[in-house]
Amino acid sequence: MSYHNLEIDTEFIACLRRLDERAFGKLFHACSGLVYSIAMGLLGDRQAAEDALQEIFFKVYKALPDFEGEKLTSWIGRIAQNHCFDMLRQAKRAVVTSVKPIDDLDISQLEPVSDEFPDFLNSLSLLEREVVILKKVEGLSYKEISQLTGKKEGTLRNIMLKSLQLLRGKLDEK
Amino acid sequence: MKNSCENFILLLQDYPETAIDKESQEHLAVCENCRKLLENHNQSFDLLKSQLTLSPQKKQQIFARIHQTIAAEKTQESNTPFSTFLAWLFAHRLQLVLPVVILAFGIMFFSQNNPDSKIQISGSAVILRNMEKIELDQKSLQLALGEKISLLKGRLNLFWNEIETVAIDGRLDFSAADMSIKAQSGEAVMNFTPSAKGYLIETRRSLLKIVGTTIKLELTDNSDVIFVEKGKIEWALHDNSRKGEAAAGIRILIRADNRGSLTVEESPFAQMNSADGAIASQSPDPGVKLIKSGKDWVFQEIEPSGAEKKQ
Q1: A35 touches chain B (CB under 8 A)
Q2: Arithmetic mean of pLDDT over chain A
Q3: A164: CATH
Q4: Looking at residue B221, what DSSP letter applies?
């Protein structure tokens, strides 16, 4: 079951709100890929992303009875994003004392490079990397990414263009 | 050519959801850079996709860990004193059924026999209750709150919390509730004791508040006539459009016309002494009057000659 189909199944959502175990299992198997991609995009570390996946779905489970009618994937995506940002803030607090909005943080300040990603992705900011992964790996539309990240579709297209230009730049270097 | 390269990179923004069109395919055939870009794009993202894909075993492991965390939290929650009590109740539910049933019956029995929750009537009167004619003959009878009865003749005393509040003489369809009487129709004299101060009489058209009073009601389909014999009452129409006070000797006539509009008239009425010295009041129907004879109030037709005939 794809998470794209979850949105329209009101009976399924009602089961989730009642914390039906089968429905929750279905939700996990449908959305774990998306959540893992978000976690990997932001954390850049396989083990940290797996831990985050577990913690995020536990948060989702606890919040499900209060879920109200908005898009399920966007809701889960935002929980995932906020959880990862919290993890990054905690990690950053341990290293540096300056406080900077998370969107402005350059990846080099947190995760210099991740072996998991191609070079051109390592040149992007956290948010840019997340956007590229959501688009190219998870196949989300710009509208869906916009609902999840709160960024305008035009901004998201520019991020994608920037990443493709970086990819082309890397080719030119060779 | 540069324009075509820029167009191609723009197309990649939506690729692979948007297919490579004919124009771009023609461009790819002649542009090595864009061919390499597409090739590298596909390789990079295919590799990334494979790296970001969790194996089914890994997914299962993580899901099992989530389940464990949820189960651990549930166990922690179920160890609270309240949940332990609930668990004990559930475990002993069968043993608890009998005492609960006995308790429920006890409560029902007590509530049915609790004078606080019932109204009592007694006196020498004939009433109609649930289509059954009952002669009270000084016996006491309990009424449920709001139960409708009809006083057919005689006089009944109404007790609230074992305290007499009102004596009703005549004939009246009514129901009694908490410190109130709903009077539907009929003609009766109501004599309230001082303890009934604040009692409410609700007719179809008005609300009367008792301030230590003897009143006589004549309730018909078209009018309410209230004679204040003693003390005074406060009265108001249901829509509160008119209200006032009426003292002893005042008659209030509330009349409804064909359209349901109400008119209120207040006028003095002549109180007459009957043969045994009791007070009788003048009915608005000139052919009938209510007089007290011994303990009872009776209606008498006034013969054209002036002689009275007992009904």
Answers
A1: no
A2: 81
A3: 1.10.1740.10
A4: S
User: What is residue A151's three-state secondary structure?
Assistant: coil
- Cβ–Cβ < 8 Å for A66, A37: no
> What CATH architecture is B115-310?
Sandwich (2.60)
pTM comes to 0.50
Domain extent listing, chain B:
2-51, 115-310
Nearest CA in chain A to B52: A37
Label residue B278 by pLDDT band (50, 70, 90): very low
Strand bridging mode B200-202 / B180-192: parallel
A38-54 average pLDDT score: 91
- Write down how long chain A is: 174
β-bridge pairing B262-268 and B119-129? unpaired
Structurally, chain A folds into a number of domains equal to: 1
8 Å CB contact between B50 and A117: no
**Per-residue model confidence (pLDDT) at position B262:** 87
List chain A residues with CB under 8 Å of B51.
40, 116-117
Give the orientation angle of helix A142-149 with respect to helix A72-95, to 10 degrees. 50
Amino acid of residue B255 = R
> For residues B186 and B165, is the Cβ–Cβ distance under 8 A?
no
Q: d(Cα B208, Cα A139) in Å, to the nearest integer? A: 76
In this structure, of A12-26, A112-126, B198-212, B218-232, the range with the lowest mean pLDDT score is A112-126
Confidence of residue A32 (pLDDT cuts 50, 70, 90): very high
Give me the numbers of helices (H) and strands (E) for chain A, helices first please: 9, 0
pLDDT at res. B306: 44
| Amino acid at site B93 | R
Instruction: Tell me what pLDDT residue B294 has.
Output: 56
Q: How far apart are the first and last CA of chain A?
A: 42
The phi, psi pair for B207, rounded to 5°, reads: -125, 125
A53 contacts B52? CB cut-off 8 A: no
pLDDT one-digit tens code per residue, B81-126: 666 677 677 777 777 777 788 887 766 665 554 445 468 888 889 8
Domain limits for position A118:
3-173
CB B211 within 8 A of CB B197: yes
Q: Two tokens at B173?
A: 């369809």
A96-133 pLDDT, tens digit per residue, is 444 445 455 444 445 435 667 777 888 888 888 889 99
The verdict on a CB contact (< 8 Å) between A171 and B40 is: yes
Check CB contact of A114 with chain B, cutoff 8 Å.
no
CB contact under 8 A, B41 and A133: no
CA distance B54 to A38: 13
User: For B277-302, what is the mean pLDDT?
Assistant: 48
